[in-house]
């Protein structure tokens, strides 16, 4: 039975995490450069990445630090930008064994990022914590290494390489959503709806002022709710 | 420097709580059909919204971003693996920027 062992799902997680690791490396490298410009040492920047593991949240947090904002402001900024993890964590709670002990739930929670969530939720069957640990380990390694190198050595990578690596994460998202969208019209509608609404909110006047985190929540809630009303699911939600 | 670490701890604390609360508190299967369907569609809507239009600004130029996007969509359409789709996108971006730099 799948998921009873530890080694196999752990290694599978490591493998699925390779593109995430590369993409994170590129994104966090840029973050490291920004952090050093705000005055953080390579060690500080690395700690920041290790403890947070959230691109949009960290970028916004750096802004608060640079502006010497209050701690309350910092907390609110993180809450607004990262509240989407609440949805992801809820979805994951339905994907794990209901009997899974709290320590494993707390362990999985550390790695709830857009990318790790995307890969974990699409995996067939129940999510085992060892898969999460594998994919989280390699992804966070890329995230922290990129941050430290970016902060320490600025531009050691040619710009063209970091530019190319910049699409790695998106490539992964595309690999996750396209195959099921091809087979299921309701999923296709959810994907196209997400693309259209997020484009609208990105480019339309006034609403484009909202942060990217808020935009993603708004799009997700609106599109998923609409699809749930039009194409209700009977069975799949638990083992999607 | 302790002030910096207070900032970092506030950030990390808030973010971790958001991630951990549903996973630790929701211990039963959600039965409500609407909620189950909603949860089923969440990843597709989220990933689509995160990819587009953000991918257009992820590289050095719009043209190379479109090249990467197109390559990734084609590879994914033919059910290639995560790594292959991601790598194909990166290579397409690299190639496009190489061509652009030669043209200029």
Task: Give an account of the 3D structure.
The complex is a heterodimer of chains A (240) and B (104). The longest helix of chain A has 32 residues, at 7-38. With 240 residues, chain A is mostly helical. The model of chain A has no long low-confidence stretch (mean pLDDT 87). Chain A is globular, with a radius of gyration of 19 Å. Chain A has twelve helices and no strands. In chain A, helix 3 (55-66) packs antiparallel against helix 4 (71-82) and helix 10 crosses helix 11. Chain B is mainly alpha-helical. Helices cover 78% and strands 0% of the residues of chain B. Chain B has four helices and no strands. Chain B has helices at residues 2-25, 33-51, 62-77, 82-103. Chain B is flat and about 55 Å long. The termini of chain B are far apart. The mean pLDDT of chain B is 90. At the A-B interface, helix 1, helix 2, helix 3, helix 4 and helix 5 of A face helix 1, helix 2, helix 3 and helix 4 of B.
In short:
The complex is a heterodimer of chains A (240) and B (104). In chain A, helix 6 runs parallel beside helix 8 (129-153).
Most extensive interface between two protein chains, with residue counts: A-B, 106 and 79 residues
**Individual helix count of chain B:** 4
SSE series of chain B = HHHH
Structural class of chain A: mainly alpha
What does the overall shape of chain B look like?
flat
Tell me the series of helices and strands of chain A, N- to C-terminal. HHHHHHHHHHHH
Using brief descriptors, characterize the structure shown.
heterodimer; A: 240 residues; mainly alpha; 12 helices; 75% helix; globular; B: 104 residues; 4 helices; 0% strand; flat
Provide the fold topology.
The complex is a heterodimer of chains A (240) and B (104).
Chain A: H1 7-38, H2 42-52, H3 55-66, H4 71-82, H5 84-93, H6 102-110, H7 114-121, H8 129-153, H9 159-165, H10 168-183, H11 185-203, H12 212-230
Helix pairs in contact in A: 1-2, 1-3, 1-8, 1-10, 2-8, 3-4, 5-7, 6-8, 10-11, 11-12
Chain B: H1 2-25, H2 33-51, H3 62-77, H4 82-103
